[in-house]
């Protein structure tokens, strides 16, 4: 009898084990069926080493070998499934419950330990709607701010002066963004600038420290990662700084006063409909906003300025374009004026094409197995991504892909009008080549429903900063750079500009 009970218990345990582990096993086996890029490097640790030491080459090889098929690659985030461009359209229509982006952000930013904000819907909504709509209305306010910043933050440069431009641009981006996030009074305060600049830096340091440990050890490693405490410190400081501001705003509403026109206020107004539990959550939303908005924009600006310094001949044409546009708007850098700066837009897009901040984009977690229309299967439980950098260098999409061609996207926009009818189709075709367009060929801002909602603001802000800079200064590389653009710093799949480098600036003297 005892033997039967034991056998029955064993059977139940086995059944449970099979039920529990079968899906993972099936997913793992489906993953293993996909071709492996970098197989020549051998074992998992060796492939990982190949990725950390030269991810660019791996992605290029993968793109050359498997341009039209799904394949896997070993990354610092584990095995990932790389998907060809042709599937993006189909994938972007799948619901978040199948292809999920929050889970991928949690993995990238170690959200379990860093405590990423979970009220992303409020931030996304306010950025997408209120902020984007406010650009036309608040453009004069931003223009005044950027004018003040350029005068205050940059040296006079009466003669050629070396200027380490990146930290200056970072501060200007933070102030300018802060003008719309918290209002013109608070955007220069030390507390705001500290939070908006350093939270991201400290978060990245904590994430890097955690990722030094294998995944399995991270629950324990969090207690040996002092960088994590600085994140808590930022949250405390954000509360101490912003809670009194939020309380004052609520009192102003009660007293029927005119309310400020900024992101904090738009968020306060919509807090209830997004189930914000308390004011601390609103304060945290501002930190998360800084994470999404400040360094991304300032890195992009730094790349563009390095490209301008390496190709100074284009400054003349850019200045000419900006002057002509401003003549038509009586000097106002309105949204419409910025839209008309099409060469500037082209330069920005070309710089972003050649300097992607990450080699992969459209990173999503596959929550449920997916069978694509052509029968291709994506296993659940793994992350997919698109080989953004390799696409940006595809000669069939971008002829002479390694050359910085400032007119590339301007020409493509012009061609759209020559070759496309009716005018509505031509406008749509032209739109594809703009800086803000998120298409399968340009994943710089991601793609689909979760593509960056802040890209219209980023573009507006970048154009304001660059137009002011270009009108006021000539830009060159120092002689010891020998005319060669500064090389980027690459860490695994992440690419950033070398922020310690100086460019030469000289004030433009108008006759
Ligand atoms: C040049 C500057 C910027 C770049 C290159 C950039 C890039 C990106 C990328 C690649 C994504 C992921 C999209 C995807 O996976 O499909 C993203 C998401 C996001 N970005 Fe940006 N971004 C920039 C500026 C901004 C700004 C200024 C804001 C806010 C004002 C912002 C707010 C967001 C938010 C809220 C998300 C999450 C969207 C979602 O999950 O649905 N970004 N951004």
UniProtKB/TrEMBL annotation:
CDD domains: CYP503A1-like
GO molecular function: heme binding; iron ion binding; monooxygenase activity; oxidoreductase activity, acting on paired donors, with incorporation or reduction of molecular oxygen
Pfam families: p450
CC cofactor: heme
Keyword terms: Heme, Iron, Metal-binding, Monooxygenase, Oxidoreductase
Family to which the UniProt record says this protein belongs: Belongs to the cytochrome P450 family.
Name of the protein in its database record: Cytochrome P450
Species per Swiss-Prot/TrEMBL record: Podospora appendiculata
